[in-house]
């Protein structure tokens, strides 16, 4: 893939620092990605530091969000000009579930059914969180919490559990309006 270089001024939307990508570069990335909608995986450098990121369109603009792993203290650097390289990243970013989580789902078919019916982003968030844990003790505890969350009995990383009755009530109230 062809890498593109440019300089940009860090801007802020809400609490998120970002830069705008020049239109000519965006067009080439769209061609490489084979799409002009949705999330577009990219990689490159910010001031010579490697990053892996996703381009997003928000409020009509495609933005490269500059988080603190890409650039130290980025929220405090609004107005600063930075050097960026960017290219489409065709690599597979699938995160494989931890084997212990797969085993826990296999042993609880109701939780597995609920997991299978989660949105792709919710599944990814759960899998990413579990696989990022550093100790077996933490992983075991969080896998247990994930299963009870899927069964509607607890919270999980700040998300409330939903029973079937709550889902049915919410769905019915939204569709009957």
Describe this structure in words.
The structure is a single chain. Strand 5 (49-58) and strand 6 form a beta hairpin. It is elongated, with a radius of gyration of 20 Å. A 7-stranded antiparallel sheet has the order 1-7-4-5-6-3-2. By secondary structure, it is α+β, with helices and mostly antiparallel strands. Residues 163-177 have low confidence and may be disordered. The chain folds into 2 domains: 4-88, Beta Barrel (Elongation Factor Tu (Ef-tu), domain 3), CATH 2.40.30.100; 99-163, no CATH class. The chain has 6 helices and 7 strands, in the order βββαββββααααα.
Q: What top-tier CATH class of the largest domain fits best?
A: Mainly Beta
Kindly provide the radius of gyration, computed on alpha-carbon positions and rounded to a whole number of angstroms.
20 Å
Q: Which structural class best describes the helix and strand composition?
A: alpha+beta
Fraction of residues in H or I helices: 25-40%
For the sheet with most strands, the description reads: 7 strands, antiparallel
Shape: elongated
Give me the CATH architecture of the largest domain, please.
Answer: Beta Barrel
Number of domains: 2
Low-confidence regions: 163-177
The helix/strand series, from N terminus to C terminus, equals EEEHEEEEHHHHH
User: How widely separated are the two ends?
Assistant: 49 Å
Average pLDDT confidence is 87
**Biggest sheet strand line-up:** 1-7-4-5-6-3-2
């Amino acid at each position: 893939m062809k890498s593109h270089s440019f300089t940009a001024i860090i801007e802020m939307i809400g609490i998120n620092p970002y830069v705008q990508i020049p239109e000519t570069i965006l067009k080439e990335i769209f061609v490489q990605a084979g799409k002009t909608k949705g999330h577009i995986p990219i990689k490159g450098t910010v001031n010579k530091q490697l990053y892996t990121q996703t381009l997003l369109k928000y409020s009509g603009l495609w933005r490269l969000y500059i988080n603190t792993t890409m650039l130290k203290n980025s929220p405090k650097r609004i107005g600063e000009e930075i050097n960026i390289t960017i290219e489409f990243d065709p690599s597979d970013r699938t995160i494989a579930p931890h084997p212990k989580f797969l085993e826990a789902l296999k042993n609880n078919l109701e939780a597995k059914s609920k997991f299978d019916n989660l949105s792709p982003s919710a599944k990814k968030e759960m899998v990413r969180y579990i696989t990022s844990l550093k100790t077996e003790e933490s992983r075991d505890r969080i896998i247990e919490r994930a299963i009870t969350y899927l069964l509607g009995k607890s919270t999980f990383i700040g998300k409330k559990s939903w029973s079937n009755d709550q889902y049915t009530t919410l769905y019915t109230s939204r569709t009957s309006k």
